[in-house]
Amino acid sequence: MIRFTLNDKAAEVEAESDTPLLWVLRDILQLTGTKFGCGMAQCGACTVHLDGQAIRSCVMPISAIEGKSVKTIEGLKPDSNHPVQQAWIEHNVPQCGYCQSGQIMSAVALLEQNPDPDDEAIDNFMQGNICRCGTYPRIKAAIKTAAKSLNTTSNNKFNYELATNVGENV
Amino acid sequence: MKTPTDLKNVSRRDFLKYTGVASTGLVLGMAVPTQTVWAATESKSNELNLFVSIEQDSTVNIVCHRSEMGQGIRTGIPQIVAEELCADWSKVNVVQGLANAAYGSQNTDGSRSIRNFYTAMRQMGASARTMLESAGAKFWKVSVDKVYAENGFVVNKTTNQKLSFGYLAELASKIPAPNLDKLTFKKPENFNIIGKPVPIVDLPKMVNGTTEFGQDVLVEGMVYASIERSPVIGAKVKSVYKDDALKVKGVIDIVVMPEQSFPVVFKPLNGVAVIATNTWAALKGRKALKVEWDLGENKKHDSEQYLAELSNSIVTKGKVVRKVGDAYQALEQAKHKISGTYTVPYLVHAPMEPPAATAVVNDDGCEIWACTQAPQGAQQTVAGVLGLKPEQVKVNITLLGGGFGRKSKHDFSAEAAILAKHTAKPVKVIWSREDDIKSGYYHSISVQHYEAGLTDSKSVSAWIQRTAFPSIIWTFNDQVNEPSDMELGLGFGDMPFTIDNLLCEKHQAPAHLRIGWLRSVCNIQHGFALGSFVDEVAIKSGKSTQQMWLELLGEDKKLDVKTQGFDYKNYDMPIEDYPIDIARLKNVLNLVVEKANVNQATLENEAWGISVHRSFLSYVAVATKVSVIDGQVKVLEMVNVIDAGRIINPDRVKSQMEGAMIFGLSIALMGQIDVKNGTVVQSNYHDYPILRMHQSPEIQSFIVESDELAAGVGEPGVPPVAASLCNAIFKASGKRIRDLPINKHFRV
Ligand code: FES
Ligand code: FES
């Protein structure tokens, strides 16, 4: 039996000790928001927070989680009210959506560490998260929007016109 | 957690009766029952037609019968219906249609959803709106011309009273569907949903992790399967050593998959499945499994050697595809000559979500949940492997974590069905990334050879182009060993130039892997070769690339390649409706030069490159700016212009164009699948890299405003990318790259 904190609640699971946290979350706890993309820490689809740090759950054996605190996309803000989620909505970021749980969890961790990242800092932190659909330009823009809204108290109102002002009709 | 449908006791509501087909193959309203198919909902709302039902609280359920894989179709299709319905968009609820022949084709590929269903979806909306208006007129006891629908209400023109769609829905559902020719449609200038950047309907769930993809499906009592598949196409299982695998905690069973023969079609590959109580146990069990293979003929296939062979044959005469004048003679007489051979390796889709399918089988039928691009095909394939009738197979379509063509193949659905039958339990088949990279349906390895002759005054007098690649058709008919007209119609036989002496030829190229279609298909290699060669000819002629294109395209016209001997399929659309319109091609080219300011001076080691391509009936031009410093290529900026006719959702068009730029960059910079001893060498993202954020440029996308018929969006952005990039690299560094990927020559 392994005990840990999951999305701010006590959790315990019975699993082989080498089972990656990813499969414990997805198969046993049925939290499928955390995605499987590569299984070898190459794509970031499985990103969750472990004691506040972004980690790849596909290579993190459950035995290493004992007593620690895990946060998944489901535990971020179920009402999608986190400034990062709001920025994602504002920029209409996702295409297929599959990588986005991991992208958002990485972005949240980045902004907790560096509240005002420049392009290089964003590139460096986010390059572990692949998006096969190619939403990088919007992810980058959304991270900047989220940084702004986290750094001010102003209410970020949803505006999709704003989100699509790159390029125009000709 | 899902409970499978009780297939024996399905209620009448679960089925839909239909007959007859309209021009699009779908049915307006319900006609005389002749066949049973699965219905999309079991809801008790009032159905107005196959696509529209309305709840008492005015929720408007609109069916999307196409698969969502990131292109935004679950928003686009309902936008069209809601527009003509005069619905309140905030009340729209999108229902994913099940596999159902009544919808017409659900095969979501070929960038065709909008062009094939624009008219039909307007009819669905207009028909339902007419029924609601009739219901309002009936309620007020006035004639129907005294009412109109607006934003979710029917309004009485005389009294200005309003009744909500919800209030009228039941009454409306009893009114017979109007005849198609009685329908009236909105004028485009009055559109307020079509043409608007409506946010995608799945957005709120995509940001909190509650969407469901094929990999996410959970069914009560299910087990998990991972399959060791034949390393070589056609290889057969000789022996299996199961003991170690069975010792892995959680492993329940080892199943040898039924042996398949050529052609490969969508049949599961030969292999051995490990079934377990969770994914990790299945993966571990698979590692402990030992399978001995009878590898067969394809074990001799070596992609490097194969490409060298094709490159040798491509410089010789081939089989004529299209011909004007006498290109060989003209070339001989030409003052200046130029030639280039261009190669593209095998590529694989690598969608972010590897394929996955879950199946339940019992005596009465089968239920499937799959991230499929083509639910009706999945239904037929599964019915085939289980010996059932298609209507005994219920196919639920999840969201797709990317498709790009991979998920319109049904091998993974068939695997789930076979294993569910075998185990008598719900089974989820999980493909790992390694499975996805090693057991795909590959984009063909290819060689293109171009030769041009120039006159004294540097105008082009002769043009010869050849192509060779293993055909997709081989996947379905293993006797085929040369490119088909369908594939040659993807940027080769339909190339848009008017030259007095023009010759297009093809060469044979036998297949040794499963060949499939990947986002923009053969336009990838043909767009790369043509766009690169035009740039080379431009340089030889001392002209700008733009000038060269304009010269080769000639005057504005609708080009007819059929008169030049090529049987052009035009993406299955009539050439009268969707001509090869040279003026539109020139327009996007000129626009991209202007928007990117391509002719402005750049810093040293920096340069712009451009290319343009018509595919999927759309016109796209791309400008790419790079820097090349100390052997390192950096893509700095990309500008693209698309003319895709009428646009439903400009924001999704832009996002598709952004995605296409990045998809094209992944291919051009790093995309390479090698085959040694018949086996794919690469296995995961470390050796089949996908573009990452630090490699991703700034992208600007422009849409040509147009009332022309809607054309493709998902794919046509990809073909011009590689050429625009290689042209930029040449200008920045002096190095011409003719063999993709670029990372063979530069760090990227
Ligand atoms: S699944 Fe963990 S990094 Fe890809
Ligand atoms: S949105 Fe599809 S992989 Fe990122």
From TrEMBL, chain A:
<dbReference type="Pfam" id="PF00111">
    <property type="entry name" value="Fer2"/>
</dbReference>
<dbReference type="InterPro" id="IPR036884">
    <property type="entry name" value="2Fe-2S-bd_dom_sf"/>
</dbReference>
<keyword id="KW-0001">2Fe-2S</keyword>
<dbReference type="InterPro" id="IPR012675">
    <property type="entry name" value="Beta-grasp_dom_sf"/>
</dbReference>
<dbReference type="InterPro" id="IPR051452">
    <property type="entry name" value="Diverse_Oxidoreductases"/>
</dbReference>
<feature type="domain" description="2Fe-2S ferredoxin-type">
    <location>
        <begin position="1"/>
        <end position="76"/>
    </location>
</feature>
<dbReference type="InterPro" id="IPR036010">
    <property type="entry name" value="2Fe-2S_ferredoxin-like_sf"/>
</dbReference>
<keyword id="KW-0830">Ubiquinone</keyword>
<keyword id="KW-0411">Iron-sulfur</keyword>
<keyword id="KW-0560">Oxidoreductase</keyword>
<keyword id="KW-0408">Iron</keyword>
<protein>
    <submittedName>
        <fullName>(2Fe-2S)-binding protein</fullName>
    </submittedName>
</protein>
<dbReference type="InterPro" id="IPR006058">
    <property type="entry name" value="2Fe2S_fd_BS"/>
</dbReference>
<dbReference type="InterPro" id="IPR001041">
    <property type="entry name" value="2Fe-2S_ferredoxin-type"/>
</dbReference>
<dbReference type="Pfam" id="PF01799">
    <property type="entry name" value="Fer2_2"/>
</dbReference>
<dbReference type="InterPro" id="IPR002888">
    <property type="entry name" value="2Fe-2S-bd"/>
</dbReference>
<keyword id="KW-0479">Metal-binding</keyword>
From TrEMBL, chain B:
<dbReference type="InterPro" id="IPR012368">
    <property type="entry name" value="OxRdtase_Mopterin-bd_su_IorB"/>
</dbReference>
<dbReference type="InterPro" id="IPR037165">
    <property type="entry name" value="AldOxase/xan_DH_Mopterin-bd_sf"/>
</dbReference>
<dbReference type="Pfam" id="PF20256">
    <property type="entry name" value="MoCoBD_2"/>
</dbReference>
<protein>
    <submittedName>
        <fullName>Molybdopterin-dependent oxidoreductase</fullName>
    </submittedName>
</protein>
<dbReference type="InterPro" id="IPR019546">
    <property type="entry name" value="TAT_signal_bac_arc"/>
</dbReference>
<feature type="domain" description="Aldehyde oxidase/xanthine dehydrogenase a/b hammerhead">
    <location>
        <begin position="208"/>
        <end position="297"/>
    </location>
</feature>
<keyword id="KW-0732">Signal</keyword>
<dbReference type="InterPro" id="IPR006311">
    <property type="entry name" value="TAT_signal"/>
</dbReference>
<dbReference type="InterPro" id="IPR000674">
    <property type="entry name" value="Ald_Oxase/Xan_DH_a/b"/>
</dbReference>
<dbReference type="InterPro" id="IPR052516">
    <property type="entry name" value="N-heterocyclic_Hydroxylase"/>
</dbReference>
<dbReference type="Pfam" id="PF02738">
    <property type="entry name" value="MoCoBD_1"/>
</dbReference>
<dbReference type="InterPro" id="IPR008274">
    <property type="entry name" value="AldOxase/xan_DH_MoCoBD1"/>
</dbReference>
<dbReference type="InterPro" id="IPR046867">
    <property type="entry name" value="AldOxase/xan_DH_MoCoBD2"/>
</dbReference>
